[in-house]
Specification:
six-stranded antiparallel β-sheet, 2 helices, 40% strand
């Protein structure tokens, strides 16, 4: 059996209890309407609850409000470019221009960038 948690952060106490009572195979998964599947992280140690491992099928960037890439450790917005090449919303050109640029969709999610293929959602 494996447990995949989506739609929100997994508290450490709940992960520990699930591991003890259900299965050691626990994953967190992040997806968006615009970008589809973005991350899948196996929870093997406490640090795994802090970072999301980016799937090879998409590119993730952390950018400022102007769309400029931020260095590791800086907080910004998550921008996703899926391999499938989603380019906008159906029949909504205004929203597409606002949220899709250069093949990326900008999500209303604040995150910290990392030096590796991972990112962390801002708490609270």
């Amino acid at each position: 059996m494996q447990l995949v948690v989506t739609a929100g952060p997994l508290p450490r106490a709940l992960a520990d209890e699930a591991r003890a009572r259900l299965t050691p195979r626990i994953y967190t998964h992040y997806a968006s309407t615009e970008g589809g599947p973005v991350t899948l992280t196996r929870i093997e140690q406490p640090e795994d609850l802090r970072w999301h491992r980016i799937l090879p099928s998409c590119e993730v960037q952390i950018v400022d409000d102007s769309g400029h890439l931020l260095p590791a450790g800086q907080e910004g917005l998550v921008r996703v470019r899926p391999m499938e090449g989603v380019t906008g919303y159906l029949d909504d050109a205004d929203a597409s221009r606002t949220f899709f640029r250069g093949g990326f969709s900008t999500l209303a999610t604040s995150a910290l960038s990392a030096r590796t293929a991972a990112w962390r959602c801002r708490a609270g």
